[in-house]
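Researcher: Please predict.
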Amino acid sequence: MLEGNRRCGIPYQPIPADGLVNAVEGTLAEFLAGQIAALDAIDPALGRFARTTRDLVLAGGKRLRPTFAYWGWRGMIGGREPVDSVLPALAALELLHTFALVHDDVMDGSATRRGRPTAHRIFAAQHVGAGGPGDPDQFGTTSAILVGDLCLVWADQLLAQTAVTTATLFGVRACYDRMRVETVAGQYLDVLGETRPQEWSLDRALVVARHKTASYTVQRPLQFGLALAGPMRGAAPAIHDAYQTYGIAIGEAFQLCDDLLGVYGDPAVTGKPASDDLRTGKPTALLMLAQQLATPTQRAELAQIPAGAVIPADGSGGPLSPQSRGGSPQPAPARAEPSEAQIARQAEIIAETGAVAEVEAMIRERVDHAVAALSGAPIHPDARAALTDLAVTATHRPA
C-alpha cells in the first residue's frame, strides 16, 4: 500500500495540526473530570464507572474526526481565528466516536480495541475481580452498552458548550444529528450483511461504507466544521459541495483500507485480532470483489472453509439451507468456527483472486477524485494542503 501512496503522486507530509490533538485531549479531560466528580458525588460505584468510561475515551486513537472538522472549519474561516471557541464541538465528535466503537465491539464480540481489552471485557473482568454473582459476560455487555449511551449524552452536553451564536449552533446541530442517524443506519446495514450474505453485493458493501464510515469519519465532520464557521454565505455552498465529494471519496477509501487491515493487518499495530472479518464472514467490499473475481477452482476451495460461506462454490452469494430448495430462501445454518489454518488459506485465496490489488486501485482512484475536488474549491490554502495530506495518510495507514 505504500507503493500505492507513491503512485498517487502526493508526497507524504506530517499533518500540520498545530497542537490540535493535544487541545482536543485537554478539552475532553477537563470536561470528563467534571462529569466524574458529579457522578462520584452520587455514589462511588458511579465514579468508578465514569472513570472507566473516561479511560476508554482517552485511550489513544487517531482523532481523525476532530481533525477533519477542524480543517473543514479552517477552510471557511481562514487561518487567524483562535480555535478555542469551537474546541468543545470538535471534542464532542470523539465522545460520539467512543459511543460507536463501544457498541460496535459489543455487537461484534470483539476482545480488543487499540491493543487493549474492549469495554465489555473490562467490565466482565471487574465483575470477576469483585467476586460478583451471576454471569460476568452479561454484566460486561450491559455495562458497555451503558458506557456507549453515556458517551452519547456527554457528546450532546459538550457540544452545547461551544461558544458560537445560537443560529450557528442550530446549523451545527442539524449536521450533527444527520451524522448520528447515518452512523446508526450504516451500522444496522453492517449487522444485516453478516446475517444475509446471500443478498449482498459490492455495491451494497459500498453503501455500508458510505454510511457507517464515510459519513461520520470524513464527510459530515468536514461539513460540521463548515457549519461551525456560521450560516451559509459567500463561498460556503461551493465549499460544502467540495467537502461532500471529498468526504464520500475519502470515507469510502478509509473503509476499503480497513477491509484490507481486517484481513492482512498486523494485530501488534492495529490493536485488533487478525482476520476478524473472515471469522465472522462479514461481506466487505474486499470479500465481494473476491467473490466476483474468483475462478471456479478458487470458489470451490473457499466453499470448503466455514468462513468462506460468503463466497460459495457457485458464486451466488451466501448459502441457503436445504429447506430453501424450490421454495423461499431460508437462513443459512450457523457456520462452524474456522481454524487458523483455514483462515490463513482463505486470506491467500482472496489475494490470489486479485481482489487485494483491485481494492488498492479503488483506494487510489478515490484519493485522486477527492484531491481533484479540492483543487478548484474556494477554501483556505492551509486547509487545502492539510486535507490533501489527510487524503493519503488516512487511507494508506498500518492501523
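Model: The domain at 166-399 is CATH 1.10.600.10 (Farnesyl Diphosphate Synthase).
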